[in-house]
Every structure is written in structure tokens, then in C-alpha cells.
Amino acid sequence: MVLPGARRSLSSLSGILGRGRKIVAIGRNYEAHAKEMKAEKPKEPILFLKPTTSYVSQGGKVEIPAACKDLHHEVELGVVIGETCRDVRQADAERHIAGYTCLLDMTARDIQNAAKNKGLPWTVAKGYDSFTPMSEFIEKGRVRDPHDLELYCFVDNELRQKGNTRDMIFKIPELVAYISSIMTLEPGDVIATGTPEGVGQVKAGQVMRAGITGLVEISFPVVDRRP
Amino acid sequence: MVLPGARRSLSSLSGILGRGRKIVAIGRNYEAHAKEMKAEKPKEPILFLKPTTSYVSQGGKVEIPAACKDLHHEVELGVVIGETCRDVRQADAERHIAGYTCLLDMTARDIQNAAKNKGLPWTVAKGYDSFTPMSEFIEKGRVRDPHDLELYCFVDNELRQKGNTRDMIFKIPELVAYISSIMTLEPGDVIATGTPEGVGQVKAGQVMRAGITGLVEISFPVVDRRP
Ligand SMILES: [Mg+2]
Ligand SMILES: [Mg+2]
Ligand SMILES: [Mg+2]
User: Which of B88, B183, B225 would you mutate first to test chain A, the one with the most A CBs within 10 A?
Assistant: First the structure.
């Protein structure tokens, strides 16, 4: 299948990596996860940015920074933007989406908790290099319903997370509309739509295996970062 | 003067806009500003990200979003990265810098205060389109000492901010070293080095005039955003 211009260049991970300028991530977008974080169900989407330098693709490793004592996995559906857009109406959101990806929003939970307690940004906790391992690009036509996808994450052979995108508090059209009312979205930008419950620690020597059932699977070893 | 390859393409604002993928901003990097925010002097740099879609260059306007009732100006020195780098030592920082820019880190103070109180990210408060008005690129050779620059910001004809970069708590080499120990820096990335005291509200119909004495001046009208 030949894709139209803008989308063709996104049809590989290197296309996403090369073109996108931001990752807009959503906090607490599954009620059971908000609960496990002892947080309230949000009334509007909670946004934060991750730098695109945090991407790592299959074959790479996730590194635990020396400053982090509690690195957590968060498996998420990523939405890949196909066209520059702003003030998108929910009804039009779908046409600005090029496809999807499965990603892990790696989080230095100890650093994040310290930041939250001081009212400080989450940037360091979420932004280290290798903190966004990501699958190949999944062309939109391969996904029948993005709100009926099973997400899972194993650590070694233990199932840690299993959830369904139908449980998102804010659905994809709401997210695209809300984000684009604040900041322009551009081709290759990725929306990390939030994680279901079951987040937890990974340690050096373990392997994370995550995916979207029937669509894609990724596997990343975890190592200590050497300066 | 002919600049070497990587830097030549940065020697215009469109070069920065086109190439950079992140703005890493520093919170509370001047003691008098930390004090006016009723915050402690930080023990390590406070980082947050702004999206590159927030840039606006001379000729454009700064828009007040409908959700914001208290938009603040923060005049800052921007450091423009010239080369991909990670784990930069302070002694080597200078060679990874292509030049400088003067920018305004526009901040929806009401939205930021609400976020701080809930331990939530500053992304929305800092990330709207037009929230990073920026000057032309200032080639490194034109700046004798980046730690002896006078920053100023007028609103209409009232002087609101006047400070000197010598009062930064964390100097530029410390910032480059600290940030690059967390995330890779890339050509065109901008470090917004923090604002001196005197931040305050701007309203629709006012004009901000800011600059670095002897080097550059920018002027941006403030308007209400129409959805
Ligand atoms: Mg997450
Ligand atoms: Mg960015
Ligand atoms: Mg600032």
C-alpha cells in the first residue's frame, strides 16, 4: 500500500525519530493507575513533555541513571501525528493521526516523587536518554479500533501490566483536541496516552517485554548507566 | 565571516526554528527572582521543557490563551547548542555552544501556581503557542562574556526587569554539564537560562520590548487569542 506523502516518511521508526520534535505524555489516564499512585482521577488531561532524545528503538538498551534508585516501566499506546494541526475538533482528530506505536514511558519514580512534593516539573524524572523505548511504527490502517487494544508488559517472565485502551479516561480525540488547543502538533510528534495499572520497578539485568496484543512486541534489556 | 558547516545553518532564526527539537528552560536561576516567587534558592538546576512550537519571531504576536488570566513576561538569555553532545564537562561546554539569543519565557502564572500546588507539571503553563518570543541568533563571536550581559524588559514604557547574567546561580557551563548528563543536546536546542527579578503581568494591547544591552532588542505586541 502506498501512503500519501507526509505519511510515507513516517512509516518507519527512523522516520518518526527523524521528524518529530516532541513527545506529549499524559499522566494518570487510567483510573486504576491513578488509584495505585494514590492520586485523584483528573478532571482534565495532565500533560508533560519528554524530549525526543529519550527515544530508543529495538536493539537498544534502557539505562538506569546513577541518580535513580527506582526506575519504573509504564507501557503505553503512542499516537503518531501525521499533519501539522492546531485547534483540532474531536470529530476531526482521526484525520491528523498517521498511526500508532507501543512505548514504555520510563519514569524515575523516586525523582518524580521528590519533584511532586516540591511542586517542581517532572522533566528530569521522565527525560533521561533511553527513557522512551518504542516499537516500530504501526500504520493506522492496521488498527481497527485504537480504543480496544490490549497493552501488556512483562519483566523477565512476570506479567506486570495488562490493560485495555478502552479504559482511558480521556480518549484519543479528546487528547488531540485538548493538546492542540494549547500547542501546535507536527508530523512525527507522539502522544503517549498514559499507562494502565501495574507499574513497578525494573533493575539492571532484567528484560522488559511489552506490546499490543496481535500488533507489535518490543523487548529491552535494562542496564546500569556507566558515566 | 564564514562560519563552519554546522553553525552556518544556525546563523538565522529560521535555522534555529527549523533544526532545534527542544527548549530546556531553567527555573529560579537568579536569587532575587527565586525570592520574589517566595521560593528557596535551588541546590541544583530546576529543568523544564518548552515545545519548539512555542517560538515566535520578530513580526509575530504573543497571544493570551482564554484559560490564562495572568500572563507573565520573563526575559532570559538563550544559549543555542551547536553540536550533538552528552556528558559534557564544564571545561568543554563552550565548544558545544553556537551562540545566543534573547527570549521571553512567557508563563501563565495562574496555571503554573495551580499546577505547583497539585504537584503537577508546568507544561501547559509554559507551553502554549507564542509563549517563547525570541530574537535573532547572536553568533558566539559577538559576545565577549555571556556572564556579563544586561537583560531588560519594558512593558509599554515601564521598565519591569533589569538584571545581569553575572547573577545566575548556575552558570552556563554548569547548565550544559548538568543538562547533558541527563539528556543529549542537539544542534539548535536552546537553553533558556532563567530570568532576573521583576516578572509581572502583561495584558492585551500592551507591547513588550526586551533585549540584551548593546546586542539585540525584540518587541512583541500582546493580544488576546481568538479561538
Ligand atoms: Mg506515563
Ligand atoms: Mg521537545
Ligand atoms: Mg523562565
Answer: B183
Cell 508546568 -> residue: B122
- Positive or negative, the CA dihedral A213, A76, B22, A90 is positive
Contact A213, A196 (CB under 8 A): no
Query: Residue ranges of the domains in chain A?
Result: 5-224
Retrieve residue A35's grid coordinates: 488509584
Name the one residue in this structure whose C-alpha cell is 488498527. A143
Q: State the distance from the centre of ligand 3 to the C-alpha of A23, rounded, in angstroms.
A: 21
Q: What is the DSSP letter of A41?
A: P
In tens, the pLDDT along A149-208 reads 999 999 999 999 999 999 999 999 999 999 999 999 999 999 999 999 999 999 999 999
C-alpha cell at A203: 533493575
Q: How long, in residues, is chain A? A: 227
Cβ-nearest to B87 among A24, A122, A227? A227
| Min Cα separation B119/chain A (Å) | 4
Chain A residues whose beta carbon lies within 8 Å of the beta carbon of residue B115? 119
The CATH code for residues A5-224 is 3.90.850.10
- For residue B64, how far is its CA from the centre of ligand 3 (angstroms)? 17
ipTM of the complex: 0.93
pLDDT in tens, A32-50: 988 998 888 999 999 999 9
Nearest to A202 by CA among A216, A227, A225, A223: A223
